[in-house]
Specification:
Order of helices and strands: HEHHHHEEEEEHHEEEEEH
Strand content: 15-25%
Shape: globular
Number of strands: 11
Structural class: alpha+beta
């Protein structure tokens, strides 16, 4: 199909996204990313005791030592409600990724209303994420998921992902039938070819909502802390998660603002 930008002019991360459906890049705004992590740590310290004197990364890695397993979900919900829906926090997260994001979805962007947080303590089965593609739950195939580890991640402390070619091959097999008898059966077929992501704090993962991915029980001795949030072009097709309900604009151009104001008061123009 035709492209707005010829393939030879794409930046490497954009070319990788088209080829593989995902890319891992270093943030161009590490100081802002450190501020994002500091906000998370400050909130956690206000909720739990322990870890005095530890650096932010050491504190997050050892968080399971300060928070009882029975309280972990309340902590997760608290972070999600207090920080995840904060406009200041959302704008910081956007700033961390904007440089690369505009090459993937354009410069008129909507962002998920809330930033998600994943806290997975060692050997906590509640942290499992079954193999899936986000499009199965109504997400638009035009969405890009931003995945930000707040600590170094590897092996089962991370997630696994199928690239575009693998995902599309498995989706064709499912479409042709017979359908897998269960999610576990599908995972047994897909998991051996999936890639385990190894990332450092400061790295950003962008992946298409079409990709199959999941997370296994964390078998390391450190807690996994990850932020995730979705972006898409303001004018690309939406799935069941619409603007206003799930997404809010974070950047749009003057002509778009004038046009949206007009349509809001006088209605859409029809030929």
């Amino acid at each position: 199909m035709s492209q707005n930008m010829p393939p030879q002019t794409r930046r490497p991360h954009a070319a990788a996204f088209v080829q593989d459906g995902f890319c891992v890049v270093p943030s161009q705004q590490v100081s802002i990313l450190e501020s994002v992590r500091a906000d998370v740590v400050a909130y956690l310290r206000s909720m739990t005791k322990g870890g005095a004197g530890l650096t932010d990364e050491a504190y997050l890695n050892a968080f399971h030592k300060f928070s009882a397993p029975t309280a972990l979900n309340d902590v997760r919900v608290g972070v999600h409600k207090t920080l995840g829906s904060s406009e200041v926090f959302r704008q910081k997260v956007f700033a961390c990724a904007r440089h690369h994001l505009e090459d993937l979805v354009g410069n008129e962007i909507v962002m998920q209303r809330q930033v998600g947080v994943v806290i997975q303590a060692p050997r906590d089965p509640a942290g499992l994420l079954a193999l899936h593609t986000d499009c199965w739950s109504g997400c638009s195939p035009y969405e890009v998921v931003l995945w930000i580890p707040l600590v170094d991640v590897h092996d089962t402390k991370s997630m696994y992902i199928c690239d575009r070619a693998q995902t599309e091959r498995h989706l064709r097999e499912i479409k042709a039938g017979p359908a897998p008898e269960s999610t576990a059966a599908l995972a047994r077929r897909v998991r051996p070819g999936a890639q385990d992501l190894r990332m450092k704090f400061g790295d950003l993962l962008f992946f298409s909502s079409i990709l199959m991915h999941g997370a296994e029980e964390n078998q390391t001795d450190e807690t996994r802390f990850v932020l995730n949030v979705r972006f898409k072009s303001l004018f690309s097709p939406y799935g069941t998660k619409a603007i206003g309900e799930t997404f809010l604009p974070v950047n749009y151009l003057p002509a778009t603002e004038v046009g949206l104001d007009y349509e809001g008061e006088f209605g859409a123009v029809h030929a």
